[in-house]
Specification:
This protein has 1 helix and 4 strands. The protein is 19% helix and 41% strand. The chain is of the alpha+beta class. The protein has one domain. Strand 3 and strand 4 form a beta hairpin. The chain has a two-stranded antiparallel sheet. The protein has a two-stranded antiparallel sheet with strand order 3-4. Keywords: Plasmid.
Length: 59
């Protein structure tokens, strides 16, 4: 288990959310963040299969 801190800012609205959780993978952390803040972290995806430290924004 690792502690992940995800932070997302929507620049045009200045809306910011920071989410902290314990998860086994970065993907699990993204899933937990999306459940806690529906729609806010939906743009994050894994950069590479198995990556735990990076994400890309699909826009």
């Amino acid at each position: 288990m690792r502690t992940y801190i995800l932070s997302m800012t929507i620049l045009h609205t200045q809306q910011k959310v920071t989410f902290r959780c314990e998860a086994t993978t970065f993907g699990d952390a993204i899933d937990k963040a999306e459940k806690a803040h529906p729609g806010f972290f939906a743009v994050l995806t894994h950069s590479l299969p198995g990556e735990q430290n990076n994400a890309t924004v699909n826009r």
